[in-house]
Amino acid sequence: MNILRIPAGIYAANCYLVYSEDDKAAIIVDPGGDADELIDTIETNNLHLKYIVLTHGHGDHIAAVNKIKDRFGVEVLIHEDDAEMLEEGELNLSIKMAMGNIELKSDKTIKEGDRLHFGNLEAKVIHTPGHTKGGICLLIEGSLITGDTLFKGSIGRSDLYGGDFDLLISSIKNKLLQLPDETVVYPGHGGQSTIGYEKRTNHFLR
Protein backbone atom coordinates (compact mmCIF):
# COMPACT_ATOMS: atom_id res chain seq x y z
CA MET A 1 0.00 0.00 0.00
CA ASN A 2 1.09 3.54 -0.76
CA ILE A 3 -0.26 6.74 0.78
CA LEU A 4 0.57 10.03 -0.91
CA ARG A 5 -0.07 13.18 1.14
CA ILE A 6 -0.75 16.32 -0.88
CA PRO A 7 -1.52 19.54 1.04
CA ALA A 8 -4.14 20.98 -1.28
CA GLY A 9 -5.85 24.30 -1.73
CA ILE A 10 -5.28 27.63 -0.05
CA TYR A 11 -5.93 26.10 3.37
CA ALA A 12 -3.42 23.28 2.79
CA ALA A 13 -5.83 20.55 3.86
CA ASN A 14 -4.16 17.17 3.51
CA CYS A 15 -5.48 15.22 0.56
CA TYR A 16 -4.51 11.56 0.50
CA LEU A 17 -4.16 9.24 -2.46
CA VAL A 18 -4.21 5.67 -1.18
CA TYR A 19 -3.47 2.93 -3.65
CA SER A 20 -2.48 -0.67 -4.11
CA GLU A 21 1.02 -1.14 -5.46
CA ASP A 22 -0.13 -4.33 -7.22
CA ASP A 23 -2.93 -3.07 -9.42
CA LYS A 24 -2.91 0.73 -8.83
CA ALA A 25 -6.52 0.71 -7.57
CA ALA A 26 -6.96 3.92 -5.57
CA ILE A 27 -9.16 6.20 -3.53
CA ILE A 28 -8.69 9.92 -3.03
CA VAL A 29 -9.58 11.35 0.37
CA ASP A 30 -10.51 15.01 0.92
CA PRO A 31 -9.45 16.74 -2.31
CA GLY A 32 -9.57 20.29 -0.95
CA GLY A 33 -8.18 22.22 -3.91
CA ASP A 34 -5.51 22.26 -6.62
CA ALA A 35 -7.64 19.97 -8.77
CA ASP A 36 -5.29 20.07 -11.76
CA GLU A 37 -2.32 19.00 -9.64
CA LEU A 38 -4.30 16.15 -8.10
CA ILE A 39 -5.52 14.96 -11.50
CA ASP A 40 -1.96 15.08 -12.83
CA THR A 41 -0.71 13.04 -9.86
CA ILE A 42 -3.38 10.40 -10.41
CA GLU A 43 -2.59 10.12 -14.10
CA THR A 44 1.20 10.27 -13.73
CA ASN A 45 1.07 7.36 -11.28
CA ASN A 46 -1.33 5.43 -13.55
CA LEU A 47 -3.85 5.09 -10.74
CA HIS A 48 -7.29 3.59 -11.25
CA LEU A 49 -9.47 5.81 -9.09
CA LYS A 50 -12.49 4.11 -7.56
CA TYR A 51 -13.89 6.58 -5.01
CA ILE A 52 -13.67 10.13 -3.75
CA VAL A 53 -14.08 9.75 0.02
CA LEU A 54 -14.75 12.75 2.26
CA THR A 55 -13.97 12.64 5.97
CA HIS A 56 -16.43 15.49 6.53
CA GLY A 57 -18.21 18.24 4.66
CA HIS A 58 -16.19 21.42 5.20
CA GLY A 59 -15.26 23.55 2.21
CA ASP A 60 -11.50 23.26 2.65
CA HIS A 61 -11.77 19.48 2.16
CA ILE A 62 -14.10 19.41 -0.85
CA ALA A 63 -13.06 22.21 -3.22
CA ALA A 64 -11.62 19.93 -5.93
CA VAL A 65 -14.33 17.26 -5.80
CA ASN A 66 -16.34 18.40 -8.80
CA LYS A 67 -13.37 18.59 -11.18
CA ILE A 68 -12.03 15.19 -10.12
CA LYS A 69 -15.45 13.60 -10.39
CA ASP A 70 -15.94 15.07 -13.85
CA ARG A 71 -12.53 13.83 -14.99
CA PHE A 72 -12.72 10.26 -13.68
CA GLY A 73 -16.46 9.62 -13.33
CA VAL A 74 -16.16 8.14 -9.84
CA GLU A 75 -18.57 8.20 -6.92
CA VAL A 76 -18.39 10.72 -4.08
CA LEU A 77 -18.86 9.15 -0.63
CA ILE A 78 -19.56 10.90 2.67
CA HIS A 79 -21.16 9.90 5.96
CA GLU A 80 -24.92 10.14 5.91
CA ASP A 81 -24.94 12.76 8.68
CA ASP A 82 -22.77 15.18 6.67
CA ALA A 83 -24.43 14.77 3.27
CA GLU A 84 -26.52 17.90 3.72
CA MET A 85 -23.39 19.98 4.25
CA LEU A 86 -22.21 19.33 0.72
CA GLU A 87 -25.35 20.82 -0.75
CA GLU A 88 -25.26 24.18 1.05
CA GLY A 89 -22.38 26.62 1.06
CA GLU A 90 -23.63 28.09 4.31
CA LEU A 91 -23.32 24.73 6.06
CA ASN A 92 -19.99 23.66 4.56
CA LEU A 93 -18.66 27.19 5.17
CA SER A 94 -17.26 27.58 1.66
CA ILE A 95 -19.38 30.69 1.16
CA LYS A 96 -17.17 32.36 3.79
CA MET A 97 -13.90 30.92 2.49
CA ALA A 98 -11.53 32.31 -0.09
CA MET A 99 -12.30 29.64 -2.72
CA GLY A 100 -15.94 30.74 -2.96
CA ASN A 101 -19.22 28.91 -2.73
CA ILE A 102 -19.08 25.14 -3.32
CA GLU A 103 -22.19 23.00 -3.53
CA LEU A 104 -22.43 19.39 -4.69
CA LYS A 105 -24.16 16.12 -3.98
CA SER A 106 -22.75 12.82 -2.82
CA ASP A 107 -23.42 9.68 -4.85
CA LYS A 108 -23.58 7.40 -1.84
CA THR A 109 -23.56 7.81 1.91
CA ILE A 110 -21.49 5.67 4.25
CA LYS A 111 -21.75 4.79 7.92
CA GLU A 112 -19.94 3.19 10.85
CA GLY A 113 -18.50 -0.20 9.98
CA ASP A 114 -18.81 0.08 6.21
CA ARG A 115 -15.86 -1.34 4.28
CA LEU A 116 -14.71 0.21 1.03
CA HIS A 117 -12.83 -2.13 -1.28
CA PHE A 118 -10.38 -1.00 -3.93
CA GLY A 119 -8.07 -3.54 -5.49
CA ASN A 120 -6.68 -5.72 -2.71
CA LEU A 121 -7.16 -2.98 -0.11
CA GLU A 122 -9.99 -2.31 2.30
CA ALA A 123 -10.85 0.89 4.14
CA LYS A 124 -12.97 0.54 7.26
CA VAL A 125 -15.22 3.48 8.10
CA ILE A 126 -15.11 4.69 11.71
CA HIS A 127 -17.76 7.28 12.56
CA THR A 128 -16.14 9.95 14.79
CA PRO A 129 -18.67 12.74 15.31
CA GLY A 130 -17.67 15.88 17.16
CA HIS A 131 -15.96 18.09 14.60
CA THR A 132 -19.06 17.60 12.46
CA LYS A 133 -22.02 15.29 12.90
CA GLY A 134 -20.82 12.92 10.19
CA GLY A 135 -17.07 13.06 10.60
CA ILE A 136 -15.31 9.80 9.81
CA CYS A 137 -11.87 8.23 9.95
CA LEU A 138 -10.62 5.52 7.59
CA LEU A 139 -8.63 2.56 8.85
CA ILE A 140 -6.58 0.94 6.08
CA GLU A 141 -4.27 -1.81 7.26
CA GLY A 142 -2.20 -0.09 9.98
CA SER A 143 -2.93 3.45 8.83
CA LEU A 144 -5.65 5.79 10.04
CA ILE A 145 -6.81 8.83 8.05
CA THR A 146 -8.43 11.08 10.63
CA GLY A 147 -9.65 14.17 8.75
CA ASP A 148 -10.20 16.97 11.26
CA THR A 149 -10.98 14.65 14.17
CA LEU A 150 -7.43 14.16 15.45
CA PHE A 151 -4.23 16.05 14.66
CA LYS A 152 -0.68 15.64 15.86
CA GLY A 153 -0.86 17.14 19.34
CA SER A 154 -4.34 18.53 18.88
CA ILE A 155 -7.97 17.85 17.96
CA GLY A 156 -10.49 19.35 15.58
CA ARG A 157 -12.65 22.37 16.28
CA SER A 158 -16.04 21.75 17.81
CA ASP A 159 -17.52 25.26 17.64
CA LEU A 160 -18.82 25.07 14.07
CA TYR A 161 -22.07 23.67 12.66
CA GLY A 162 -22.58 20.13 13.92
CA GLY A 163 -19.69 20.32 16.37
CA ASP A 164 -19.77 18.93 19.91
CA PHE A 165 -16.66 18.97 22.10
CA ASP A 166 -17.71 16.18 24.48
CA LEU A 167 -18.73 13.97 21.57
CA LEU A 168 -15.42 14.65 19.81
CA ILE A 169 -13.40 13.63 22.86
CA SER A 170 -15.57 10.53 23.28
CA SER A 171 -15.08 9.58 19.62
CA ILE A 172 -11.31 9.85 19.93
CA LYS A 173 -10.95 8.09 23.28
CA ASN A 174 -13.49 5.32 22.74
CA LYS A 175 -12.72 4.54 19.11
CA LEU A 176 -9.35 5.84 17.94
CA LEU A 177 -7.30 5.37 21.08
CA GLN A 178 -8.46 1.76 21.24
CA LEU A 179 -6.40 1.02 18.12
CA PRO A 180 -2.86 -0.35 18.44
CA ASP A 181 -0.25 2.21 19.50
CA GLU A 182 1.72 1.70 16.29
CA THR A 183 -1.24 2.77 14.11
CA VAL A 184 -0.02 5.64 11.94
CA VAL A 185 -2.23 8.75 12.03
CA TYR A 186 -2.66 10.76 8.83
CA PRO A 187 -4.56 13.93 9.83
CA GLY A 188 -6.45 16.49 7.81
CA HIS A 189 -3.87 19.20 8.50
CA GLY A 190 -0.21 19.01 9.51
CA GLY A 191 2.15 16.09 9.84
CA GLN A 192 1.57 12.46 10.69
CA SER A 193 1.65 10.88 14.15
CA THR A 194 0.80 7.58 15.82
CA ILE A 195 -1.94 6.55 18.21
CA GLY A 196 0.69 5.80 20.87
CA TYR A 197 2.25 9.25 20.53
CA GLU A 198 -1.13 10.93 20.90
CA LYS A 199 -1.93 8.85 23.98
CA ARG A 200 1.30 9.99 25.60
CA THR A 201 1.48 13.63 24.57
CA ASN A 202 -1.84 15.08 23.39
CA HIS A 203 -3.00 17.25 26.29
CA PHE A 204 -6.59 17.32 25.00
CA LEU A 205 -6.84 13.59 25.65
CA ARG A 206 -5.65 13.44 29.25
Tell me what the structure shows.
With 206 residues, the protein is α/β, with parallel strands linked by helices. It has a single domain, classed as 4-Layer Sandwich (Metallo-beta-lactamase, Chain A), CATH 3.60.15. The protein is built from six helices and 14 strands. A six-stranded mixed sheet has the order 1-2-3-4-5-6, covered by helices on one side. A six-stranded mixed sheet has the order 7-8-9-10-13-14.
Reported CATH architecture: 4-Layer Sandwich
| Structural domain tally | 1
CATH superfamily: Ribonuclease Z/Hydroxyacylglutathione hydrolase-like
What is the highest CATH level, the class? Alpha Beta
Share in helix: 10-25%
| Oligomerization state | single chain
Structure classification: alpha/beta
Uncertain runs: none
Count of helical regions: 6
How is the largest sheet built, in terms of strand order? 1-2-3-4-5-6
Cα(first) to Cα(last) distance is: 33 Å
Q: Main beta sheet: strand number and arrangement? A: 6 strands, mixed
Please give the radius of gyration in angstroms. Answer: 16 Å
SSE order:
EEEHEHEHHEEEEEEEHEEH
- Estimate what percentage of residues fall within beta strands: 25-35%
Query: What characteristic shape results from the CA principal axes?
Result: globular
CATH topology title = Metallo-beta-lactamase, Chain A
Quote the average pLDDT: 97
By DSSP, the count of extended strands is: 14
Outline:
With 206 residues, this protein is α/β, with parallel strands linked by helices. The chain contains six helices and 14 strands.
